[in-house]
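Internal ticket #5521
Category: modeling
Description: The requester needs a full-assembly model to guide mutagenesis choices. All entity lines are attached below as received. Residue total reported by intake: 828.
Assigned to: D.W.
Attached entities:
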Amino acid sequence: MKAAIVAVGSELLAHGRDDTNGPWLTGRLRQAGIPVVLRLLVDDHRGRLAEAFRLGLAESDLVIATGGLGPTEDDLTREAAAAALGVALRRDTAALEAIRARFARFGRPMAPVNEKQADVLEGGEVLANSNGTAPGQWFSGPRGILALLPGPPREMMPLFETAVLPRLQALVGARVLRTRVLRIAGMGESEVEQIAAPVYATWPGVETTILAGPAEVELHLTAEGATEGEALGRVVPLAEALQEALLGRVASDDGRSLPEVVGGLLVDAGLSLAIAESCTGGLLSSRLTEVPGSSRFFDRGFVTYSNESKTALLGVDPELVARHGAVSVEVARAMAAGARRAASAGVAVAITGIAGPDGGTPDKPVGLVCFAVETVAEVRVRRSVFPGDRDRVRRQAVAVALEMIRRVLLGLED
Amino acid sequence: MKAAIVAVGSELLAHGRDDTNGPWLTGRLRQAGIPVVLRLLVDDHRGRLAEAFRLGLAESDLVIATGGLGPTEDDLTREAAAAALGVALRRDTAALEAIRARFARFGRPMAPVNEKQADVLEGGEVLANSNGTAPGQWFSGPRGILALLPGPPREMMPLFETAVLPRLQALVGARVLRTRVLRIAGMGESEVEQIAAPVYATWPGVETTILAGPAEVELHLTAEGATEGEALGRVVPLAEALQEALLGRVASDDGRSLPEVVGGLLVDAGLSLAIAESCTGGLLSSRLTEVPGSSRFFDRGFVTYSNESKTALLGVDPELVARHGAVSVEVARAMAAGARRAASAGVAVAITGIAGPDGGTPDKPVGLVCFAVETVAEVRVRRSVFPGDRDRVRRQAVAVALEMIRRVLLGLED
């Protein structure tokens, strides 16, 4: 079973607004084994709304609509759904009474416009809404299943959980979906694709998606099964084959972020990390301390933005800076050594570079970043030129630094 | 003219993901006088994608698609758009050369799969993308206008601004819309709304939107006019009335971020800033060094995560920590004093807190953060308890610290 979600309301298409129900429903449906293949956000226009329902019904087995069930003339979901399904609307007496009772309970008179909230798709069922006046609806016919839910999340969510989800589970049974996310730093999207595509092309029954972030690539692998074991039995062997094909480049396959992986390796090794950053200005420290419990592996960091601070805090020789420039592998190496010494840490990492937009030269262009990682046993350095703006250069530098630490800790070559 | 937006990519329909391009484009189009009536998010499925384009073309005059222009077999936007329009694709020699040149510039070999990124809709134009390998496309025909843009926002946004928007303005005429964004840190959304609503209710002809971020509130004020002067004549008086009503709480009204405002004030005052961070772990330094040219006001930062590092780097008396705890205004004050001394800086800020999820006590709950700002003339401290998870606590702490520095520099009371 595949699903489409239709979010109804001109306000969702106004500046600075968005639909929050769709992402929530997408997650809940995924967990129930029902992938969402299409989402539509439509303004309050009867014809367009009916076309949106037609497309949803044509491209999926289940359409869930949110919003447009209110009493005003802008609320057109019922009419549009009826038009798309080719069925009539009938006024449901019980639903009407429930709306009346709700108004009475809050001591307010019911306006005549509210009566249309009791209009139900012919052949459909009313889903009683205990958190608002608009009841939901469930319709199952030859063209597919249609569930109409109110727009306010505090009404929509409980109605989905109590009325829609049980009906779906009765239909799809105990189908379960399991996903593995392989996270790869230090490789480009097409480079990963080049290696991964021949592997997953030979693996039927697993849905694969490649996702490129600012400095990381993710491979999402999803398979379905009657049981968790069956779903995992499909997805895990492919994950393992990809791990092998990618030669240790996969930092995590369980959703953990690169900082979490590096933090875990440090804790396992009983090592603490010292950080010395110049162009990334605290971003690496900030990413590592996103990890709860990071005090177990991180004790201090130095943001040494000026040359003077590199000397004062890390003991970098001013002559070294004069000779090679602040952005050089030599200075990166001295920064790492100084940070490790100053923090009495097991591992130290240093980053120095030119994030831009200014400060580049033909010799040392914007995007040039030099790295060093020092442990008691070895020192590794790296010099990269990253494309993109200031923000992207900094993010890529942080990802590369994390990947360098990961490889040092695992004894993998660069 | 009405627009539809098609966001392409299975990853947008995965759990926990969403399309961020659509809301941005909706705002930009709205400012150009083009309302968005339909948004579609579609998985990487050729047939469904073609149907989405057909619906977009049927229901609007302009379809803007984002994503699916990469080199992999999942990237189907070109093929689907061609199918919906009923035109062929041709390989564009100039676009192919541009892609090759881009790879050469970064010293990487171009994979054969990248060649299809030069496939262009017959009769369409190539929109050169200087920030990535995927060129955009512009197609105008009897069924409507179709613009294909890359998915990564850092590529999509500049391409929209430089290539798509001018073409649209040539069609619809350049309507003059002017927006003021009032940025407010350290106040909640409803608190701002409470003060602002009565002010803008009496101001006709200005569209107002309130947007609440993780630690900041933005008021967007937009007015239209035949000329820039007319538009500004509507929006500026309201902006000024709101500034006054909000009593100096507005950090910027020209789109500058809080770090940019604080950086500008430091440069104007000829002061440098030293930073000492515990629970925010480098996030404040990282935010301030996002600002290009931040070396003019920032020299060094200390991420002092452990108690030992607070003593070693900032000279915080261990007895003070033992008496008041590391998370206390007393220790924050000592951290700021130590950072200012160690960096010979004009201003120092210190943050120490409990970001969670663990480490809280009844006395010092998760979310408690203590701050200090020290200048040559004064010391200010603050103690706040922030709601939300680790990430949200850290972001709120950074915003409050920036706002404290801003107010000290402007001589405003807290």
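Resolution: model delivered.
Comment from assignee: Chain A has a mean pLDDT of 93.
Ticket closed.
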